[in-house]
Amino acid sequence: MGSSDEQNERLAHPDFWDERYAKAEGDRPTHEWFRTFRDLESFFEQRLFKTRNPDTNPKLLHLGSGDSDVPAGLWKKGYKSQLCVDFSTVVVDLMSRRHSSMEGIEWKHADVRHLDDLPEKSIDVAFDKGTLDAMIHGSPWNPPSDVRENTGQYIRGVYRILKDDGVFLYITYRQPHFIRPLLNCEGTDWEVEMDVLGDSASTFAYHGFILTKKS
Q1: Distance, CA of 135 to CA of 157 (rounded, Å)
Q2: Neighbour tally for 201: CB within 10 Å
Q3: Phi, psi of 204 (to 5 degrees)
Q4: Phi and psi, residue 57, nearest 5°
Q5: Residues 6+ apart with CB under 8 A from 5
Q6: In this structure, are residues 24 and 67 in contact, taking their beta carbons and an 8 Å threshold?
Q7: What is the pLDDT along the chain (215 residues), one digit of tens a residue?
Q8: Gap between the Cα atoms of 104 and 83, Å rounded
Q9: Which of 2, 77, 161, 162 has the least CB density, counted as fewest CB within 10 Å?
Q10: d(CA 70, CA 4)
């Protein structure tokens, strides 16, 4: 295993992120490495704002929220029922303090692979920006057993807590043909759409998946 893959494997462990987030200074994000709220606003316009107006008070779940500015951006748009979970206690404490004045956003320590505390069919919108990606290492053609186990636990958990008419929005920098088999794991039955995101001048392609339960 090369050093790059060793680094990728560490991303699935909280101590890696605790170390990163412990370097935070004030309101400056320490690891908003993959698309800000502004970058994603047009995606949200089509896939969230038009379908689930904030006046309907949908319950939003941010999966592996880190120190992303997306929850705050959505709060300013009127979404005042948000739960942000992360397995780094450091970043949960940090964000709880940073956004303590934003009533309607809750920050909670939790591992997204173990969402047993959340009731079945309780979430309107689940959002992932690179969290599933961080569980992936090794060969994309034949992922290691721990990758299949971790991603399968995670996706099945999201499927369980999502309402029948809910939506799972997933932003990824990985190639769609490698991601689809992980999303369509045993125990799920998704309708899958995908948007290509970013402007044409960008050399860094990324994608937005929109997953809903088949009726």
Answers
A1: 15
A2: 5
A3: -105, 95
A4: 55, 55
A5: 137, 138
A6: yes
A7: 334 555 544 454 555 544 555 555 555 555 555 688 999 999 999 999 999 999 999 999 999 998 889 999 999 999 999 999 998 888 898 889 888 999 999 999 999 999 999 999 999 999 999 999 989 988 989 999 999 999 999 999 999 999 999 999 999 989 999 999 999 999 999 999 999 997 555 556 789 999 999 98
A8: 8
A9: 2
A10: 28
Phi then psi for 168, rounded to 5 degrees?
-110, 115
**Tokens 């039955």 map to which residue?**
189
DSSP states along the chain = --HHHHHHHHTTSHHHHHHHHTT-BTTB-S---S--HHHHHHHHIIIIITTS-GGG---EEEET-TT-SHHHHHHHTT---EEEEES-HHHHHHHHHHTTT-TTEEEEE--TT--TTSPTT-EEEEEEESTTGGG--S-SSS--HHHHHHHHHHHHHHHHHEEEEEEEEEEESS-HHHHHHHHT-TT--EEEEEEEES-TT-SS-EEEEEEEE--
